[in-house]
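I have been asked to look over a protein record a colleague put together. The record follows directly below this note.
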Amino acid sequence: MKTFWIKLLVISVLLNFIACKKDTLEPTDNTTNTTNSPNEAANSWVYDQMKEWYLWADLLPEKAKTDLTLVTGKDGENDIKKYYFYSLLNDYPNTDRFSWINENITDLTNSLGGVSTSFGFTRTAVYLDNTQTTVGFFVSYVILNSPAEKAGMKRGDIILTINGTQIDKNNYATLLASTETATFGLGELKNGAFVSSGKTLQATKAVVQNDPVHFWKVIEKGDKKIGYLVYTQFISEYDAKLKTIFGEFKAQGVNELILDLRLNGGGYISSADLISSLIVKNLNTNNIIHQDEWNANITKKYTSYSTPTKFSNQANNLGTLNRLFVLTSNGTASASELVINSLRPYMDVIIIGDHTYGKNVGSITIKDASKPVRWSWGLQPIVLRTKNSKGESDYGTKDGFTPNYLVKDNIYPYKPWGDESEPLFKKALEVITGVTIPAEVTVNARRSTRELNSQVLELHESDNPDLKLKDMFVSFPK
C-alpha cells in the first residue's frame, strides 16, 4: 500500500494531517455525462464524490431526487436554494458550516498552502465613533516579505484611509478588494482619539507566501525560561523551521511555553501532529495523539484510515513541560483546536483569550481526475471527525473551547509581539510567574493605547478573502 499522508488545515478556515495513513487513495469517478443541462454533468460528479467521501454520506438524498440543473457552486456561498453543492450539505450552515467549494482548484490549493495575491496583512476593523460611522483598521499581522512589510507596515499600525478615502461602515469590506495598488493613510492615538498622523505607506498586491512561524523569543523571569511562539498557520513546508525553533527553545532550557494561536485558523494535520510531538511531556511514540472517524463506506474500504495517529519521535521535543499556555481568539480553529484537544490527556493546557472557533472535523481536496480535465472545480467537503486518546471531541460547537482566562484582545493599537503589556501575553506571564505586570509600560508613562468596546466589524481579517479559511483537510497522495 502506498503511504497516505494525512494533513489537517485548522483554517480558518483552514485542516491538514500528519503523514500517518496507508492505502492507495484516489477520488472515484462514476459520473455519467449528460446533455440535459450545462450544469448536470458537473453536479453529477459532485454528487458522486460527496456520496463516496462526505462524513454524512448516509444522509444524502438519492441523486435522482436532487436538482442537477442548479449552478454547481460558489466559494463561500450561503444560498443553498441556488447552488447544488451547498444543497447537499447536512443542515447547512449549522451542523455542517465548514464544507466549501471553489470554482478554481488552483486557487483552492494555493489558499490551503498560505499562498495568495495580496498586500499581505491582517487587520481588525472597529468603529471609532459613537455614531458607528467611521471605521479604523488596526493591523494585527503582517506577512514576512510581503508588499505590506516591504512598504514598512507593522503590527500596531492604524489605517484610517485608503487611496485618500476615509474608511467607514459602507466601504470597509470593499476598499481593499477593489484596488491593486493602495496608499494607506496612517493614524495615531492623540488625546484619546484616533486621528491622522500625516504618514502614508504605499504597496502593490503580489503573490505572497505566508511564513507561519512568525515570531519567537525566550524570556527569563526568575527560574522561569519562557518560550513564546507566534504560529499563524499549519503549513507543512515550514515544519523544518518549526523544528529548528524548538531546538533553540530546548538549547536555552525553556521550561514554560506560550503558544500564540490567536491568528491561526488551521492547516495541515501533519503539522499539528508535529507540534504536538515537539511539546508533549514524556514523549512516547506508543501514545495516541488522535483518532479519526470517517463514514462507514470509507472505514470499510480503507481500514487504516481509522488507525490512531501516534506521537512521532522528535529530537527537539521539550520533554519536561508540565503545562502549555495557548493564546486564542474566536478565529483559533481546527488544527489549532486539534493541538489543544490532543495534548489535554497528557498535560495541563491553559487557554488564555477568547472562545475558540469550534471545529473538530476535517476535509479533503477533491478535483476532477479525468484526462483531459472537464472542469476546474475544487471540492473541500468534511470527511472526518477527530477525537483524542480519551475519546473526547466535545468542542465542535460555536462556543469552541472555553478559555481558562477570558481576556479581551480589544486594546488598540495592537502591541508588538512579545510586548509584556500586550493583554493576552501579559496574562500568561502573570499566571506563570505569579507577578502582576502593569497594564501598560511606556517611556513617558502616558497611555498610548485605548480600549474599544464598540462593535468589531472584522476580527483579524486578511486583505485576501481566500485566506479566511478555518479548516483541517486530507490530501490525496501525489
